[in-house]
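USER:
Make up one protein:

ASSISTANT:
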Amino acid sequence: MVARLNIYQMYIRNGCRFGFFVRRDSWEREKYAKVLEIEFVIEGKMIKGEPPYFGGFKNPPDHPRAGKIMGPRIVTLNASWAKPKTWSTDAGGNFCWTELNTDEIRNIKD
């Protein structure tokens, strides 16, 4: 059995880079999305906090909840099938995602 990862862990596995593709367990087989960003994460940098959820620290001063313990980080996704094509979710820490490689995406498009 393959260990499940959440989007935050996938980001790290991808060398702390965005642009990888995921499918949520509840989506149809041909649907997938590209991960564009994770809230308060600078591409190329490690996510602050304790794995696997990378939370437990206070929101930054410019945040509406400044000084309060941070909840789930918002993940921004893009998909050609979605309306709107770009949207955000607070479910990035859930283990309901599968990362797709380029061969899997190519097979979906064929």
